[in-house]
Amino acid sequence: MVRKLLLTSLALAPATILLHYLVAPGGTVDFTLAAASLIPLAWLIGDATEHAARHTGPGIGGFLNATFGNAPELIIALFAVADGLFEVVRGSLSGSVIGNLLLVLGFSLLFGGRGALDRSSALVSLGLVFLATLLFLVPAAPAFHADDPERPLYAYLSIPPAIVLLVAYLATTYLSLRRHRQLHASAEQEETGWSLRLALGVLGIATVATALIAEILVGSIEVFAEKAHLSDFFVAAVIIAIVGNAAEHGGAVVVAARGNIKLAAEIALASSAQVAVFLIPAVALLAWAIDPLALSFRPVEIGVLAAATALTTLLVADGRSSRLKGALLIVTYAGAAAAFFAAGDR
Q1: Which domain holds residue 210?
Q2: Are 129 and 97 in contact (CB under 8 A)?
Q3: Tens digit of pLDDT for each residue in 241-282?
Q4: List of E strands, 178-329
Q5: Could you tell me the pLDDT band of residue 136, with boundaries at 50, 70 and 90?
Q6: Cβ proximity of 33 and 12 under 8 Å
Q7: What is the tally of structural domains in the chain?
Q8: Contact in structure between 45 and 247 (CB atoms under 8 Å)
Q9: What proportions of the chain, in percent to the nearest 5, are helix, strand and coil?
Q10: What is the pTM of this model?
């Protein structure tokens, strides 16, 4: 019954896109329809990833989901850079890493319950996030008390950390995928369901649709923020970050609820690492073709990011999942959101 409902509601995505561009119904209607459209799209991405993982193994499956799921965030960030919304870009990207570590992984563990995690893969992902947090201090620390966080100096200081993180991402991704390919090759699994080509094709189509819907949602979210009297920083770090991660949120929870907690954790942790060491550096470097972006994150962003990484590492270090751990991560995310709300704009 639920599956039929989700399949039927996939029609919301093309309907939302057509209404937005042909009718222009207004920000409130756009926001409502786009938010509703992301739910079945997130389910579809999760479903397709699970089918792909039957051919590739959970590690590569998590990488595929993180890659497809983060594509909308890259598009959203570059659109925001073009509009000069640098604080929104930084907030949404740091909020994305934090949301994956605490909210996505938290709900995955809560719905998945007890089970085994890939401890080695999890610690590698968390190590990358910790490395990124340290390197972000290079451009961020000098701007903590600056009147203008967009000074060209901070944009130049962002280049070396971005390059180091991209090199680290490429190296660890190569080694991780080779490891998972070897593990999967030595494991006997019955390949059922969709073919790998069909699963990847569905992932690609769903990602494109998600990107279009996410753009509509972000474009209309300012109307919501104004009516709710929220700061731009809070909207970026919490609301836009959650919207941009809709694929990972829904996909990981769906996979976890089906009992595949290892894949669900891979999705959450691989996505957080990919945002930290690939997406943020890529946006920083690509922004030079549009308008230089300084990675001058605020103290509250760096502090929450470091705390989230430390807590998540502590909880997954034993390689086991539980509902209690998931609940702790979710409560911590609520605290992080409260901190972002209290911080307000610069």
Answers
A1: 2-343
A2: yes
A3: 887 776 666 777 778 888 888 888 888 898 899 899 999 999
A4: 320-321
A5: very high
A6: yes
A7: 1
A8: yes
A9: 85, 0, 15
A10: 0.81
Q: Shortest CA distance to 173 belongs to which of 63, 57, 319?
A: 63
Instruction: From 37, 87, 78, select the one nearest 340 (Cα to Cα).
Output: 87
Instruction: Give the type of residue at 319.
Output: G
Partners of residue 320 on adjacent β-strands:
116
Quote the crossing angle between the two packed helices 58-82 and 246-257, to the nearest 10°.
160
Which residue bears the tokens 């209404």?
Answer: 19
Give yes or no for a contact between 225 and 240, defined as CB atoms under 8 angstroms apart: no
Which one-letter DSSP state was computed for residue 192?
A: -
Tens of pLDDT, residue by residue over 26-72, are 877 888 888 888 878 877 877 787 777 777 665 566 566 656 666 77
Residues 317-329 as b or e (16 or more Cβ within 10 Å = b): eeeebbeebbebb
- Residue 189 near residue 41 (C-beta atoms within 8 A): no
